[in-house]
Amino acid sequence: MVDAAVRPANAPIVEATPAIDVARVNDLLMGTWGDVRRQAREMIKDSAFWRKDELGKDEHRERVLSQLHLLVDNKAVHRAFPKRFGGEENNGGNIAGFEELVVADPSLQIKSGVQWGLFGSAILQLGTEEHHDKWLPGVMDLSIPGAFAMTEIGHGSDVAAVGTTATYDPETEEFVIHTPFRGAVKEYLGNAALHGIAATVFAQLITNGVNHGVHCFYVPLRGEDGVDLPGIGREDDGLKGGLNGIDNGRLSFDQVRIPRTNLLNRYGDVAADGTYSSAIDSPGRRFFTMLGTLVQGRVSLDGAASWASALGLHIAITYATQRRQFDGADGQEVVLMDYGKHQRRLLPRLATTYAQIFAHDEFLQKFDGVFSGRTDTPDDREDLETLAAALKPLSTWHALDTLQEAREACGGSGFMFENRLVGLRQDLDIYVTFEGDNNVLLQLVGKRLLTDYAKQFQGKDAAALAKFAVGMTAGKLFHGAGLRQLGQAVSDFGQVSRSVERGLREEQQHDLLAGRVQQMVADIAGRLRAGGKDKALGARLFNENQAELIEAARAHGELLQWEAFTDALRRIDDPQTKKVLTWLRDLFGLQLIEKHLAWHLIHGRLSMQRAAAVSSYIDRLCARLRPYALDLVNAFGYEPEHVRAPIASGIEKQRQDEARAYYADLAATGKAPIEEKVLKRQKR
Amino acid sequence: MVDAAVRPANAPIVEATPAIDVARVNDLLMGTWGDVRRQAREMIKDSAFWRKDELGKDEHRERVLSQLHLLVDNKAVHRAFPKRFGGEENNGGNIAGFEELVVADPSLQIKSGVQWGLFGSAILQLGTEEHHDKWLPGVMDLSIPGAFAMTEIGHGSDVAAVGTTATYDPETEEFVIHTPFRGAVKEYLGNAALHGIAATVFAQLITNGVNHGVHCFYVPLRGEDGVDLPGIGREDDGLKGGLNGIDNGRLSFDQVRIPRTNLLNRYGDVAADGTYSSAIDSPGRRFFTMLGTLVQGRVSLDGAASWASALGLHIAITYATQRRQFDGADGQEVVLMDYGKHQRRLLPRLATTYAQIFAHDEFLQKFDGVFSGRTDTPDDREDLETLAAALKPLSTWHALDTLQEAREACGGSGFMFENRLVGLRQDLDIYVTFEGDNNVLLQLVGKRLLTDYAKQFQGKDAAALAKFAVGMTAGKLFHGAGLRQLGQAVSDFGQVSRSVERGLREEQQHDLLAGRVQQMVADIAGRLRAGGKDKALGARLFNENQAELIEAARAHGELLQWEAFTDALRRIDDPQTKKVLTWLRDLFGLQLIEKHLAWHLIHGRLSMQRAAAVSSYIDRLCARLRPYALDLVNAFGYEPEHVRAPIASGIEKQRQDEARAYYADLAATGKAPIEEKVLKRQKR
User: Fold this and answer.
1) B183: nearest CB among A204, A326, A655
2) From A187, A422, A609, residue closest to B241, measured CB to CB
3) pTM (2 decimals)?
4) How far apart are CA A305 and CA A356, in angstroms?
5) Sequence-ordered list of residues with C-beta below 8 angstroms from that of A191, at least 6 positions apart, any chain
6) Is B129 one of the catalytic residues?
């Protein structure tokens, strides 16, 4: 069906409407590394990179391995590596190009992420020059396919608790890598079932009877003869919910000995006599520093998920502008996109996707700043971690939600594999729990928000705190002070819709979204304070507030996205384009406010009247945006070779036109049968 | 992995807690046809009925076909057929037994639904005795595998608009079945790609130049030689997002001639000379009567989806009571189910699943009453249709949501195919758009609610209407009259949590849920009234209110579920069990109220204070229910042969115990390395 899907391989489908500047919007969306993105998209127009849906797991795995070699041939995956090995030391561009692979095949994206983004990055980021010289060339040219062995069956999110041990033996100057119990088996590792010949293994480093915590070791898995080395155990994870082009599996180690120098020793080393040394004194900070160097996985998932959402919406919205179902008032069948409910299903998700893509570019700039060394302070690293933990959950959940809504909006066609939506959703499913479980990540963000909140009071005296407490109460429940501050109570008694729109513009959206984050964090902090120094009570209180803390973190991420979208608006000159994109930003902001409307009401941030108007304002925005829907998805810049979904190829319009022509012809030639009900009416 | 999954094949996993009467709750859940459900569950303990995940599409299709023969051998699928052919004329029991197949393999469920529930039912319900005699025996024993050819590429939900024609030719006394354009090709039909040798085809019946609307025809597809008959076109739909054990495909007809008597003529007939006759005068009513006989598909999807949710929760909650992650205040790793957020993720969904299973049994009773003829009036049929259109969307969406949350709650393990969750979700995906697109069905419910609403005013005079309008306004925006009626404003200034709990018990929950449906419908009706007789304006207004009408329909369905749950409570005698199930019902009610909290606030149904307390009340209910979580999923009655998910087999507890024993042993023998941070603390 590939032919049908890609044909007609010419201009994108457009509707005859007052247009926006699609090229300019595309530039904005492609972002800072647009050139690399365009290069990657051009490369994957070659069908050799495409997913072949009909392949079974085993053939799919082999195809993806061969595609990895194609990526090497195309110099598509070396951008982040050191120049002395032929890389570009271009961290941002590397991630941008990597993300684009998702529309070729998410298995290809993630398997190349395993090889160069995880296995390769561990050597690059955690190893030192000797390690780079020895292994990076083989990693880069894929002569050393490798696994990244961090997660264990027993421990996913809590990496510090992994059970694998690396015990130093000074007699032979070797580390003994060992899996002490079944739960410590390394699990879900790409390249582990079949292709990996080495692995970067995270294990508890034990020397001289002291456990120095988790460190990373380079462990060969296979000898020259291609046979697994003694003590190496492998199991195949078999079929998964998606990403079946990747050979995920388990690795276990039965007293496997590796040279002392295979410890990737950038942040901690063991001398020949077994003495441990590290430039970072605190074991906790050392652990987080090591993990922090691997943040790029989260960065890239945020981008890949956002672009997958974009592709899903391109397909569903293109189809919705062609597909007709049920007669309208004029007796003609109505195009799906003209239904109020259909607009409500797709357009807010389109707005969110825009916001995420804009937010992602800022995130990528931050990442590039840190990893290039330009803006690499501990604070920058911490901000980057927090940003990753805030944005990756939102965009990956959004991708699943959007791809599902897109599939449902295309009905049975959406369920056909050839139309891409189900396959993308299956593959992206795991994005919400790997590289950090989304809920665990948001909890990290929440804790950071609490810490930042507490910092405000450092060094302040009791009087200042008391004053603050009063301020909190005044802004809280049932008092309406918030309302008076915003002047809503007065202004809302005018003409409803216009006045309400004026009261829900940029500044008010920001106040509402930012105010919610601040208030939620302050409220939670207040409730946690009761724990004092009682550890058990503290844990209980934290648990009682866990769900809300995660909500506050989500609100924080949403605010960041809203701000990124708003910043992007300032970079548009064409007034018509700016107007339409502003509506889209408003739609993003208002659907966030609608989602949490009860919160804004209870906390006195919105008057009843204004709150009651939010939903109808969203409806009006959807109706205004409707004529630009196709422009807005065309601005994603996907070409037929990227879309490859027959229903978004124009085939649906052809079919509908053919049917309409058939009936018109019947009527014109007088051959149409008369409808029984018309006949009955005539007889009466 | 089947062995690991099913072992230990003995008692279900239990926690040592004050228990509820699990057997009694299981009886309630199994419902009116519990005996048939138990019989079906016993049958599918045989691994011959299980899905084999490793099979590719083609082998999976053949396996499912062979399983259909097994169903025949087990007399598992004939319960609804006439006694004279060996059936039982037991409509409710038939559906109950059929639904249970979903835990064996949803492909098996749906393919048997195609054969006996759609193809067979069309002959049974739309045909007459001659047709029954001729074809039902072959349908029942599977010597005539058949397709149900209703949906077309161009028309899914709008069946009345299908393009296929059946034109009567009096000269030969034949109907000519024809596909006039590509959009009229029959699409997504199970048994069409491979196995079907006949089809029940829905086409516009044209005779003597009059189109009498859609009727159903029995069309042979293959001759005795197994070769497709002249004019029959078949295409294979290929890979789908799920249900790949079914050979879905397309059928087209190029002037295919069938005998006049192949019209399934129960509701409309054509005489040899071409004269049309029907006992139902109105073509519209005739069409809906014919379609109405096929409601059982929706009935069975509601049940199957609810039980699939139950299985997903059984797996995720069992795992969550064993899996530990991150240290608690006591230094021990915490069981997932003890986390506040984890409870929030799984327990409200458990409550909803209970509500749906109870509502489904009432629905099934209604269905059985109509189809047995016991309570078969036009009103009963209309109520049944509405019930189907209200409940099927809610339960099928809930299944996708629940299976996804369950998969995420199991982390990477949830993504492994062997643990069932991803496979079930993929297979059930299409349930939300087939047998009636969920949004289209809810819109039907919404229209029915509007009609019923309008009926209240039939024959009333202007004064009554005016009085009613005043009543509406008084209960509406910004007035707080609703609050005073409920006495909330006064009672809520007492001690917060207890008073709020008292104010959110059964009666208040019902008032809030029912009040919302009534108010929404009244509001929408009021806004639509402005359309008057202006068709175009009416269509525009309807479109503007479409999303909200669908919401009102959803609220109606939720209310029915809540009422069914509440009725079930009255059938529990054991006080402890009743208390726990009442909490669960409260959790269901309150999470519905929480979801629409802004609505209740804006419409003056809840005071600010009471609204602010809803979420924390839900948290308290989750904590109270936590000790009973395992009992509540064990009450679904699934045995290891139904669950077949290694992570829910006890394997996780074994692994966690093994790891804890390993560390305890190390500590006891003094061999444990000292932690670096502990060492540092000692040195200070």
Assistant:
1) A655
2) A422
3) 0.94
4) 9
5) A111, A114, A115, A119, A145, A146, A147, A199, A246, A247
6) no
Task: Tell me the pLDDT band of B293, cut-offs 50, 70 and 90.
Answer: confident
Instruction: Report residue B475's pLDDT band, with 50, 70 and 90 as the boundaries.
Output: very low
Q: Mapping DSSP to helix (H, G, I), strand (E, B) and coil, where does residue A568 land?
A: helix
The whole-angstrom distance between residue B669's C-alpha and the CA centroid of its chain comes to: 56
Instruction: Say whether residue B183 is in contact with chain A using an 8 A CB cutoff.
Output: yes
Q: Answer whether residue B503 shows pLDDT above 50.
A: yes
Cβ of A412 within 8 Å of Cβ of B151? The answer is yes
321-360 of B, contacting A, C-beta below 8 A: 325-330, 333, 338-341, 344
Tokens of B179: 């596909």
- Residue-wise pLDDT tens digits, A13-53: 666 566 899 999 999 999 999 999 999 999 999 999 999 99
CA-based nearest residue to A306, from A157, A509, A95? A95
Which of A181, A533, A665 would best serve as a mutation to test chain B binding (most B beta carbons within 10 A)? A181
Measured distance CA(B412)–CA(B409) in Å, rounded: 9
Tell me if chain B has a CB within 8 Å of the CB of A268.
no
pLDDT at residue B294 is higher than 50: yes
* Cα–Cα distance list, B228 to A218, B153, B234, B404, B621 (Å): 62, 21, 9, 42, 61
B252 touches chain A (CB under 8 A): no
Domain with CATH 1.20.140.10 in chain A: 447-634
Do B339 and A543 make contact, defined as CB atoms within 8 angstroms?
Answer: yes
Class of domain A150-274: mainly beta
pLDDT-wise least confident of B40-54, B324-338, B593-607: B324-338
Question: Which of A155, A205, A429, A478 to probe the B interface (max B CBs under 10 A)?
Answer: A429
- Mean pLDDT for all residues in chain B: 92
Percent of chain A exceeding pLDDT 90 equals: 85
Option in A155, A156, A426 nearest B426 (CB): A426
Q: Decide if A539 and B328 are in contact by the 8 Å CB cutoff.
A: yes
State the DSSP string of B183-210.
Answer: GGSEEEETTTTTT-SEEEEEEEEEETTE
Which residues numbered 118-177 in A keep a CB inside 8 Å of some CB on B? 151, 153-158, 161, 163
Our CA-based measurement puts residue A372 at a distance from the nearest CA of chain B, in whole angstroms, of: 32
Predicted confidence (pLDDT) at residue A420 exceeds the cutoff of 70: yes
Q: Under 8 Å CB-to-CB from B304, ≥6 apart: which residues? A: B98, B99, B101, B102, B106, B109, B431
Residue ranges, comma separated, of all CATH 2.40.110.10 domains in chain A are: 150-274
Query: Which residues of A belong to the active site?
Result: 435
Strands, E assignment, A385-463: none
Of A122-136, B166-180, B199-213, B444-458, least confident by mean pLDDT is B444-458
Architecture of domain A447-634: Up-down Bundle (1.20)
Contacts of B602 in chain A (CB under 8 A): 601, 608, 611-612
Q: What's the CA gap between A299 and B366, in Å, rounded?
A: 53
Is residue B477 within 8 angstroms of chain A, CB to CB? yes
Distance from the Cα of B133 to chain A's closest Cα (Å) equals 31
Tell me which of B234 and A11 has the higher pLDDT.
Answer: B234
Q: Does B418 touch chain A (CB under 8 A)?
A: yes
Band of the pLDDT at B474, cuts 50, 70, 90? very low
**The pLDDT of residue B485:** 40
CA-CA distance, B281 to B267, in Å (whole number)? 10
CB contact under 8 A, B153 and A655: yes
| pLDDT at res. A490 | 40
Question: ipTM of this predicted complex?
Answer: 0.94
pLDDT tens-digit map of B346-378: 999 999 999 999 999 999 999 999 999 999 999
Q: How many CB atoms lie within 10 A of CB B489?
A: 14
